[in-house]
Amino acid sequence: MNLTDHNARLPRLKLNDPMEPRELMNEISARSGLVPADVVGVIYELGANLLNCCRYARPLRLEGIGLFAPTVRLDGTIHIRFKPDKGLLKELNLSNNLKKHITHRQNLGKSLEELGEDRDA
Question: Could you tell me the residue ranges of all domains in the chain?
C-alpha cells in the first residue's frame, strides 16, 4: 500500500470554521466581565508582545496555553513554533467533544501495517 492510500485512511479532525476575533472578544468579555474594548486592547497587546519577544529570540510562555518560540529555517526565514501547555492537551484529550469530528475513527490506534492489512482483506 502506498503512502497516499495510507493517508486517505488516517483518522483526521474535520474542522469547523475558525473563531473570528469579534466572537473571541465577546466570549472573553462575557466570561470575564471585561468590556469588549478592553479585551481587544489586551489581544492586540499580546500580539505586540509576542512579536517583540520573538524579535529578541525570547520564547513567550502563556500559562494554560503554551510556549511560542522563534525558530529559523535553513533558508533563513523565521517561523514561530508553538508547543501547547501539557494541561491544555490533557484537558483536550479527556474531553469527548472532539470524537464526533474524527473521520475514520475505526482506524484510531492502528499502525500503517494494520491499515494496509485492513484494505487487503
Answer: 17-120
Show Cβ contacts of residue 66 under 8 Å, excluding neighbours closer than 6 positions: 82, 83, 84, 85, 88
For residue 115, count other CB atoms closer than 10 A to its CB: 19
* Four-CA torsion 50, 56, 59, 62, nearest 10 degrees: -30
Residue found by looking up cell 492489512 in the block: 117
Q: Which amino acid is at 75?
A: D
* CATH 4.10.520.10, applies to 17-120: yes
pLDDT tens profile 59-114: 999 999 999 999 999 999 999 999 999 999 999 988 877 888 888 888 888 888 88
Is it the case that residue 30 has pLDDT exceeding 80? yes
Furthest-apart CA atoms within the chain: distance in Å: 59
Cell 464526533 identifies what position? 100
Locate the DSSP E strands across the chain.
12-13, 60-62, 66-72, 78-84, 102-103
* pTM score, whole prediction: 0.76
